[in-house]
Amino acid sequence: MLDIFYNQRSTRKFLSQKVEDQKVIKLLTAAMLAPSSKGLRPWEFIVVDNTELLEKLATSKPHGASLLRHAPLAIIITGDKSRSDVWVEDCSVASLYIQLEAEALGLGSCWVQINRRFYDDDITSNEYIHQQFNIPDRLEVLSVIGIGYKAVERPPMSDHEIIWNKVSVNKFGDVFDKQ
To answer: Which positions ≥6 away from 24 have C-beta within 8 Å?
Structure first.
C-alpha cells in the first residue's frame, strides 16, 4: 500500500483515452467503501464524461479547475449537509479513496477544491456547479476529481520528502525517533 502513497501525485495532463466503465465502477466502489462518521455516508457522486460538461467544470473557478477541460473523466463529490454535520470530512475521505484507487488502476487524478471557492465575484463555485448539473439544494459540492490516463509521469515521492520533525510523541515538541 505504501507504494501507492509514494507514487500518487497530482496529474493535470491526461491522454484523451476514455476511462473504461469497469475502472469507473471500481473508482466509485472505492469511494462508497470509505469510512464515514456514524456510517451515515452523506456523499453522492456525479460521473461526468461529456466533453461539454467537462468544459463547464473547467470554468467553475478562475484558478485550478482548467485541468478538467482535458480530463476524460471527472467525479463531482457532493455531501448532504442535512444528513451529517461532518459531511466535509466524510466526503474528503471518499475523494481521497477515489484518488488512491485511480493510482492503483494506473490512472492519474487531481483534486479540484470547490467548497468555499468562487466562480466569480457574485457566485460561488458550488452555486455555479449546482446550476449546471441540476444538483438539489440539500447537497454541497466539496470537490471535483479529474481522472484519466497520465500524459506525463511524475517521479514518486522519496523518503527524503518525509518530514519527520513534524511528528511528536506523547506531547507536542517531544521528538519522534524513527530509529
So the answer is: 47, 73
